[in-house]
Request: fold
Amino acid sequence: MSLEAEKAVFQQKTRATPEQMADLEAFRLRLAEANEVMNLVGPDSLPDFWNRHAWDSAQLLTHAPDALTWVDLGAGAGFPGVVLTILLKDREGAHVWLIDSLRKRCRFLQEIVNALGLPATVLNGRAEEQRVRCDIVTARAVAPMDKLLGYAQPYFERGAQGLFLKGEKAESELLEARKSWHFQAELVPSQSDARGRIVTVRSLKRAR
Reply:
């Protein structure tokens, strides 16, 4: 499928407005340019931007349609955080925190936020040390579940729920995480990749 065809499919699935599509296209072009000088995403994945990256991120909104405030841990190249921010841009009260420990990634994210006028805050530092309250804490390709829950714990303590994009090892990662954590979890298949899973986590507490 061509890039333009995938773009049209994405718009049909998300019902994104022309303005949102323009922002996403601007993001795609800036990502491709930045990726030439820093390793933000695998270069082979850029031709599949609309499904592998944009739709993979956007599908989270179907699982939390009323959530307005999000935190993206290890935001990196902006997935899912930047995509979510663009799609939430015109909703009153919407805000996304993009957190990453690498300064160069944060510079890239801040450039995107500034260029597109997004309702987002970029924070450079360790995820577990930020004092942010949100509806949903999310992450993609950051760490195995047991470690990821450690990063996310402070947000759960402030009332958040977790909504994480994971791969085909999601089930085994959850089993391993239960050795260190008590939580409720639900797995559903990803709509962008049959091998992927979306993991919803609630009521997180460290095991004694």
About this structure: The chain has eight helices and seven strands. The chain has a mean pLDDT of 95. The beta strands are 69-73, 95-100, 120-124, 136-140, 161-166, 181-189, 197-206. The helical segments are 3-14, 18-34, 49-58, 60-63, 81-88, 103-116, 145-157, 170-177.
